[in-house]
């Protein structure tokens, strides 16, 4: 087995453990590269299909190509897709003009909380990685939240030698992170090996491409000539720019992203 085989095996084990241990779970799908890899792994773990709902929180500000990709892949892979949206906040005029962190909190965090409460999910699988951002480095594979989905990053259960705590007090909501040990380079190498489809926005056009995808007003492109998966891998092997350098909400304050995640952000 090579390193990708080991990562794949561990992620599939986490999927199956979560499905076996938790009563009612779902999986987040942001339409980005990480969640597309996660979908691929879920289909491998359960022999070609996804046996739990796939959730997408639509902020109404996603880049149009992302929504087109979502609808096409959901149909092709017969995904049990549920789309949620904080229509009340949108009707009240919520937008990045009210502050990017405020907007993320209302349209993503509160939108997700409402979706989880509506369907009674006790756990949700998310495609975060430790190397992506400092706050996410504090996460666990099985990460508890309180009754309102808030995360106490100062009080996390230990996880040693692949042993995960899955028994928690009633009312505890869990976030499960099968890709936590993966790196950005691992993700792209796995995409190349498996032929996993991704949104075309990742590939350079006219000297620009997206390295991380989110809402259109808050996501910037980077200078790049990488127009294939192989060229992206080559670029990442030498880059000194952080993956989320183009995400505007991370720059509003030093602890902006940590506050978002503590409140229940994905």
TrEMBL record:
Q: Where is the Phosphoadenosine phosphosulphate reductase domain?
A: 25-220
Q: Which UniProt keywords apply?
A: ATP-binding, Nucleotide-binding, Nucleotidyltransferase, Transferase
Q: What Enzyme Commission number(s) does the record list for this chain?
A: 2.7.7.4
Instruction: Spell out the Pfam families in the cross-references.
Output: PAPS_reduct (PF01507)
Tell me the Gene Ontology biological-process terms attached to this UniProt entry: sulfate assimilation
GO function terms (MF aspect): ATP binding; sulfate adenylyltransferase (ATP) activity
The answer to whether UniProt assigns keyword tRNA processing to this entry is no
Name of the protein in question? Sulfate adenylyltransferase subunit 2
**Organism this protein belongs to:** Magnetospirillum aberrantis SpK
Q: What is the lineage of its organism?
A: Bacteria, Pseudomonadati, Pseudomonadota, Alphaproteobacteria, Rhodospirillales
């Amino acid at each position: 087995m090579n390193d990708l085989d080991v990562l794949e095996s561990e992620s599939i084990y986490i999927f199956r453990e979560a499905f076996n241990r938790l009563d009612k779970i779902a999986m987040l799908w942001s339409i980005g590269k990480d969640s597309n890899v996660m979908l691929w792994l879920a289909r491998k773990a359960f022999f070609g299909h996804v046996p739990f709902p796939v959730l997408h929180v639509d902020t109404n500000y996603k880049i149009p190509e992302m929504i087109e990709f979502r609808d096409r892949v959901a149909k092709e892979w017969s995904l049990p897709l549920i789309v949620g949206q904080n229509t009340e906040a949108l009707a009240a005029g919520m937008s990045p003009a009210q502050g990017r962190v405020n907007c993320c909190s209302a349209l993503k965090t509160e939108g997700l909380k409402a979706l989880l409460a509506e369907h009674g999910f006790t756990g949700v699988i998310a495609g975060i990685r430790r190397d992506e951002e400092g706050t996410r480095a504090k996460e666990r594979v099985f990460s508890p939240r309180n009754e309102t989905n808030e995360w106490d990053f100062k009080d996390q259960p230990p996880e040693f030698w692949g042993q995960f705590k899955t028994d928690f007090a009633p009312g505890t909501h869990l976030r499960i992170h099968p890709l936590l040990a993966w790196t950005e380079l691992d993700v792209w190498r796995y995409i190349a090996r498996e032929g996993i489809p991704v949104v075309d926005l990742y590939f350079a056009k006219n000297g620009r491409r997206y390295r991380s995808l989110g809402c259109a007003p808050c996501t910037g492109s980077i200078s790049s000539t990488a127009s294939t998966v192989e060229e992206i891998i080559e670029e990442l092997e030498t880059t000194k720019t952080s993956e989320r350098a183009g995400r505007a909400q991370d720059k509003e304050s030093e602890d902006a992203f940590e506050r978002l995640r503590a409140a229940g952000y994905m």
